[in-house]
Design a protein that fits this description.
280 residues; alpha/beta; Rossmann fold
């Protein structure tokens, strides 16, 4: 799908990090951009900065946990622009690191509501119009944690949601191949990116309070910090290239590839069915 002036891109989690970089990249290509974010102040600032450059930018405070917020935004976008060409379900949060058995129900509820239900809510709100138009591209933000295990553990809930986004995206791709063959789907699986995701607690609902993070985890719990940090702008450039070339997966960090490959190889090694009294 060629990105060009006159098209419209919708991005959730758009006021900072990867989301803001995506918005800037789309605007730089002449697309009108729709910014959805739960933080009003940074959202307003982003829209102001974009419009000052001459970009067409529409901002909306959206909590992706709430389907009605995204349905309202979809209606607003259709009324304003009459089309959606790129949908980036990018909003995401992370909870304090802890062993799976110590992660609270509140942690699970918040992270699943944002990282998984938020993607599903975005798809329900925007994809029907895209299918009807027979064009467009969906980008769902997962993580390296959707392809491999974060070294050292402590991210069970986060990893669960990100694996789910990979599976959801793969299923969506199959369904769209029948319903709207010209549409594309990309799942973004970034490694460490300078952003405010580790400060996500600033937007945590008061009725889902956080517990204190674990004092210690597995010996390798901090080894993920040695992975290369890729700027959000570089990630956005990779996403735009994936949209235009129809690439299905974006793994942004070269040093994550061996981890993902090792997991895949381990999975394949364990898959043969053991036959009692015989061989696989």
């Amino acid at each position: 799908m060629k990105l060009e002036q006159g098209q419209v891109a919708v991005v959730t989690g758009a006021a900072s990090g990867i989301g803001r970089a995506l918005v800037d990249a789309f605007a730089g290509r002449g697309l009108a951009v729709v910014l959805a974010d739960v933080e009003q102040g940074p959202l307003d600032a982003a829209v102001e900065e974009l419009t000052a450059t001459g970009a067409s930018a529409l901002g909306a405070r959206v909590d992706v946990r709430r389907p009605e917020d995204l349905e309202s935004l979809a209606a607003k976008v259709q009324a304003e622009f009459g089309r959606v060409d790129v949908l980036c379900n990018n909003a995401g949060v992370i909870v304090p690191r802890a062993p799976v058995w110590e992660q609270s129900y509140a942690d699970w509820q918040w992270i699943v509501d944002v990282n998984l239900h938020g993607v599903a809510n975005g798809l329900r709100a925007f994809v029907p119009a895209m299918v009807a138009a027979g064009r467009g591209h969906v980008v769902n933000t997962s993580s390296m944690a959707g392809l491999t295990t974060i070294p050292g553990g402590g991210n069970g809930a986060y990893s669960a949601t990100k694996h789910a986004v990979v599976g959801l995206s793969e299923t969506l791709r199959l369904e769209l191949a029948e319903a709207a063959p010209a549409m594309g789907v990309t799942v973004l699986c970034p490694g460490p990116v300078p952003s405010r995701i580790h400060d996500a607690g600033r937007n945590r609902p008061a009725d889902l309070p956080a517990t204190e993070p674990a004092e210690s985890l597995a010996p390798g719990a901090k080894s993920w910090l040695t992975l290369t940090r890729v700027p959000a702008e570089d990630v956005a450039a990779q996403v735009l290239d994936a949209v235009e070339t129809g690439r299905e997966y974006v793994l942004t960090h070269a040093d994550v590839l061996p981890l993902a490959r090792a997991r895949a190889e381990h999975l394949l090694a364990q898959l043969p069915i053991a036959v009692p009294g015989g061989t696989a």
